[in-house]
Design goal:
It is a single chain. By secondary structure, the chain is of the alpha+beta class. It folds into 3 domains: 2-39, no CATH class; 43-87 and 100-121, Ubiquitin-like (UB roll) (Roll), CATH 3.10.20; 123-214, Orthogonal Bundle (DNA polymerase, domain 1), CATH 1.10.150.120. The chain has helices at 2-8, 13-28, 34-39, 67-74, 130-137, 147-162, 181-187, 198-211; strands at 46-52, 55-61, 93-96, 99-102, 115-117. Strands 2-1-5-3-4 form a 5-stranded mixed beta sheet, sandwiched between helices. A hairpin with a 2-residue loop joins strand 1 (46-52) and strand 2. Helix 5 (130-137) packs across helix 8. The radius of gyration is 28 Å and the shape is globular. The N and C termini lie far apart (88 Å). It is an enzyme of class 1 (oxidoreductase).
């Protein structure tokens, strides 16, 4: 069989296996550009001045650092949680200039000079914010992982409603909508609670809204 193969093909059996060995070695080796990638993996840091919870702070950051990582890894404000890291769960919600954002989807360098409020910043003189107290009162949490983002989102939600902003379920956009359960659910839809404490979360938000304590 070997002699018959040699007659039919100009490539010998020894040459074939030798070539195959070289090819396998080449495939197993790291790509030639790996070293170049490693050399460019770190960029020069930039000085970023942030206003977080009414404090003026200066940080030297890789310009690719997200606001979420700046808060957690550089400032130790771990109340803001990293969930999906893709802007889908809402666990990283913070309030920037009065509006809620997903801090995992924005870079820290983009918020120099902005007023950033995290869950820690809602506490005043050691007292819970009314929304924090309402979440406790209505048992609006179970595992608690999503709760900081839920509360920050809820605080901003009431400000948006007070300003007259409509939602997708608002029937008459020409008037200030009533804050019904459907309105609250729609406006909080960007914050996922995997424990499904939604009814209690809605009750907490209605409590604060109706009591005028936020």
């Amino acid at each position: 069989m070997e002699r018959e193969f040699a007659l039919r093909s100009p490539i010998s059996r020894r040459r074939f296996f030798g070539t195959a060995g070289v090819t396998t070695l080449a495939l197993a080796s790291p790509p030639a550009f790996a070293d170049a990638t490693a050399q460019t993996s770190s960029l020069p840091t930039v000085n970023v001045r942030l206003t977080v919870n009414a404090r003026q702070l200066a940080l030297d950051l890789d310009p690719r650092t997200t606001l979420l990582d700046a808060l957690r890894e550089h400032l130790g404000l771990t109340g803001t949680k990293k969930g999906c890291d893709q802007g889908q769960c809402g666990a990283c919600t913070v309030i920037v200039n009065g509006q809620r954002i997903n801090s995992c989807l924005t870079l820290a360098v983009m918020h120099a000079g902005d007023e950033i409020t995290t869950i820690e910043g809602l506490v005043e003189d050691g007292d819970l914010h009314p929304m924090q107290a309402a979440f406790v009162r209505h048992d609006g949490l179970q595992c608690g992982y999503c709760t900081p983002g839920q509360i920050c989102s809820a605080v901003a939600l009431l400000a948006e409603h007070k300003a007259g902003w409509p939602s997708h379920v608002t029937a008459d956009v020409a008037t200030r909508p009533a804050l019904t359960d459907a309105e609250i659910a729609e406006r909080m839809s960007g914050n996922i609670c995997r424990c499904s404490a939604y009814p209690n979360i809605v009750a907490a938000i209605r409590d604060v809204n109706e009591g005028g304590r936020a």
